[in-house]
Amino acid sequence: MTHPTDFPRDPNRPALPAHLRTALWLAELGLPVMPLREGKQPFGNCRACTRSACGDRPHMKAVGPCECLAPCHGWGAATTDPYILTSPAWARAWKQAVAVAYHPGGAALTVVDLDDADAVAWARQTLPATKTVPTTRGEHWIYLGTMTSRNSVRPGVDIKSAMSYARWLGPGTGAMTRLPDAVRALAVKEPTTVRPASGAVTVPTPPGDAVCRHRSPDYLERGIAMAEQRITEAPDAVHKTTYRMFLAVLSAHGWCGCLTEAHIGRLFTAAQGKGESLRHCEDAWANARMKLGM
CB-hemisphere CA count at 13 Å for 290? Predict the structure, then answer.
């Protein structure tokens, strides 16, 4: 398919930003896309959507109550809808964008991000050949299939698929291969690295007149999943990120009795997977409860 930069431009219409033209082309191919700001980061949430107050993910099929059309929900803002991509709410973001990203899981893809030459050499010896895209320091290996995303599965290797985004760096070369078990196995965490929480961690007891504000079980699930993802993807300041995510989950889901020990266990597992000790997790949870008066 012809790239949008090859299309003749109507001189009577203002030119679209180059990144937006690329995004529209990718959306036509079925890739959910979004703009990236400087630092290869998504645009931050608007005030109305901060801390998942709106339910998040306005452009995904599992739509929450959010009607915000701004690109302010991280990977969840990625869309193939040209009306959203060219809407006034996105215009400012495209003017500031330094790159285009896509949501691999939304297109049934998985990206193995190989960040250096050693990682590339390991992949060539270990993984089935597939479509490859050169990056600044390594390569993206793209497979057909969706799986759990996870960073640092081994030195210099990240997995980007569900609930994640990857930078668009070109169409690449080679034939795409179906996602192999060898890649899926990379995201499986060792159960022996996580110890169960002690009795000091408790589920908040709802007040007698508490009313569940969750519109569906999916609302709670999205909140837990997003907190897990943000903890897992934290590049630094893991202590601070863990506390902030615990606080956000308790603030949104801790008053009505829907939060269970299983949900707390998932958050602790994510934090311990980033190197947090059980004691740090318990302290962060207790401090978050104290902050909210629970």
Answer: 8
pLDDT tens for each residue of 66-78: 677 788 888 888 8
Residues with Cβ within 8 Å of 120's Cβ and at least 6 positions away in sequence, in order, are 114, 138, 139
**Helical pair 238-253 and 261-273, crossing angle rounded to 10 deg:** 160
Strands 177-178, 139-144: parallel, antiparallel or unpaired by DSSP?
parallel
First to last CA, the chain: 57
Structure tokens at 185: 């196995």
Q: What is the pLDDT of residues 196-224, one digit of tens each?
A: 555 556 666 555 444 555 556 677 788 88
> Which residues are CB-contacts of 146 (< 8 A; sequence separation ≥ 6)?
104, 105, 108, 109, 110, 161, 162, 179
Distances (CA, A) of 11 to 7, 8, 15, 87: 12, 9, 8, 21
SS3 labels along the chain = CCCHHHCCCCCCCCCCCHHHHHHHHHHHCCCCEEEEECCCECCCCCHHHHHHCCCCCCCCCCCCCCCCCCCCCHHHHCECCHHHHCCHHHHHHHHHCCEEEECHHHHCEEEEEECCHHHHHHHHHHCCCCEEEECCCCEEEEEECCCECEEEEECCEEEEEEECCEECCCCCECCCEECCHHHHHHHCCCHHHCCCCCCCCCCCCCCCCCCCCCCCHHHHHHHHHHHHHHHHCCCCCHHHHHHHHHHHHHHHHCCCCCCCHHHHHHHHHHHHHCCCCHHHHHHHHHHHHHHHCC
Half-sphere exposure at residue 209, Cβ-oriented, CA atoms within 13 angstroms: 0
Report yes or no on whether pTM surpasses 0.85. Answer: no
